[in-house]
Amino acid sequence: RQFQAQIMAALAARDGGAAQEAATAYLSTSPQSGSETALASLTALAAQALASPDPQERLQILDILQQALKQVVGSGPELDLALSTRWPLWGVLHVAMDAFGG
C-alpha cells in the first residue's frame, strides 16, 4: 500500500525521479507472491522504464517487463484482473513507450 501511495503521488506530481525512487525501493524489498504483488512489481518496472533517460536502458526494462507480463497474465481471467487493477500499470507503460513513438 505504501508503494501504491508513493507511485500515485509521484505520477500526480509528474515527478519521474520520485516514481523511480519509489519503484527501486519497492523492488529492492522481497515482495510476497500474489496477483496484487505481481501487478505492483510490473508497475514498478514500468515506472523505472518511464524514468530512464537512456533509450537503450528503457528498451531493456520494457523487454524485461514484457517477459514478466507474459508470466503473470496467462489466461483470460488473469487478463481481466490485470486490466481492472487499481495499479497505474497501463498508464505508466503507455507513457514509458511514448518515447519510441515517432
Explain what you see.
- With 102 residues, the protein is mainly alpha-helical.
- Helices cover 75% and strands 0% of the residues.
- The longest helix is centred in the middle third of the chain and has 18 residues, at 55-72.
- It starts with a helix and ends with a helix.
What are the key terms here?
75% helix; single chain; globular; 102 residues; 6 helices; mainly alpha
Q: Profile the largest sheet.
A: none
Which structural class fits the helix and strand makeup? mainly alpha
How many helices? The count is 6
- Percent of residues in beta strands: under 5%
- Uncertain residue ranges: none
Shape: globular
In N-to-C order, the SSE pattern is HHHHHH
Overall average residue pLDDT: 90
Task: Give the CA-CA distance, first to last residue.
Answer: 36 Å
**Rg estimate, integer Å:** 13 Å
| Count of strand segments | 0
State the helicity in percent bands.
over 70%
